[in-house]
Amino acid sequence: MSAVLVALRLLLAAVLALAACAKLADRDGARRAARDLGLPARLAGPAGALLPLVETAVAAALVPAQTARVAALASAGLLAAFTVAIAAALARGRRPDCGCFGRLHAKQIGPGAIARNGGLLLLAAAVAAQPAPAVDRGAPAVLAAVAAVACQAVLIAVLLRRYGGALRRIDELEARAPARPTLEVGAGAPSFPALPQLLRRRRPVLLAFVDSGCAACRELAPKLEGWQRELTDRLTVQLVEDRQVAGRFGVESMPSAVLLDATGRVARPLVVGARAIETLVAELAPSEEPAPGRAAAAATAAALAVGLAAASATHAAPTRRLRVRQEPDPELQAIAATLKAGGAELAAAAQRSRQAVRAQAAAVSAKQRRAKRAAAARAIAAERGRVLALREKIDGLPASGAAARNVQVAASAGLSLLAQSLQKRARALTAPARSSRRLLHEAEQELLQSLARLANAGRILEAS
Description:
Blueprint: H1 2-25, H2 27-36, H3 41-61, H4 65-91, H5 111-128, H6 139-176, H7 195-199, E1 205-209, H8 215-230, E2 236-240, H9 243-248, E3 256-260, E4 266-272, H10 274-284, H11 294-304, H12 309-313, H13 330-362, H14 366-396, H15 402-430, H16 433-463
């Protein structure tokens, strides 16, 4: 039973110590609470200053066994005074903040405050009703630890509240500060000295905002230089290291980039980070027309021998026309004539797909890209349809002789591979950047194989 009484006594002391620490941390609040609870203004100031000192003294007196009963009676008197003041304020219809625990528990008075004080009154009465026990040597140390923890908790709570207030103040100041410009798509770009010169080429301009002290910018620099060389015919890439100019474009971190159209208007919103810039460039300038090597050029020349120059010229270098020698073999004559006629039809389809692919690569706005991409896909599909139709015609021709059969097989195989190449090129238009590059590489390989088959057909025809 004695252990329970000691615990109750220390609990009451801890509550009073906590209240005292909270009031000391918020002296203005303590004086205001005293005034709101009915004390005259001339007494509210001294009462607010003295009350936490009295609570501290009572809390300390509750620890030793010899002074515990007197301290309990004093705490009961304080609690009774608080309860009467709260009840009087409620009777008058007023509900100010209690202020009992400062900012730690700022809440309007109400029945709950009276109930809380009533519970603490019972606790004080229980302690006061007990006879004075023997000296408790361990109690002072326990109370000191409890008081220290309570004071630390109050101080931490106050600091957090003040930190929150500081953050709110910062937010208010930032809200009042002029916002950085936000450039919307279609808006005119802020002017700076180099801009007119950049726009003279009448090409889209990619402004890359970099800083020599930025590690990510240094890593991106070789790629920016490569884009300046490789994309010069379709895109102007300009490095901007002027922070004042960057601020006009709303740049807050580097590297960043913004795309302008040929008239100097914003074509794409600002992107931040090396990866975002690489993705933007990949979307603007995909490798729609891989550069062929010597083998591709030679194979294309052979393809021209069978009337497919226009179909392969969409994807390969310019070549010379070879003559197809007319042979008396009617089967070979029929195959050669069909290839020539099909090549003429493919010429128009190939030219249309080439123009459509270039147009979608040059588009700058999202709406234009969608429309041009769809047009390019339709043009490539039309070209592929012509290739498949020509293959069906070739496969349907009679080829009883060995030469005719070899030409038929080689031409059919070449046309099949060309159709596959076109299909992958169409898929690359809408695929993500990495998948698009893979599809274009596969399409180029199939194109080279296709031209090799067609070249073989041309050699057979020329030798027969």
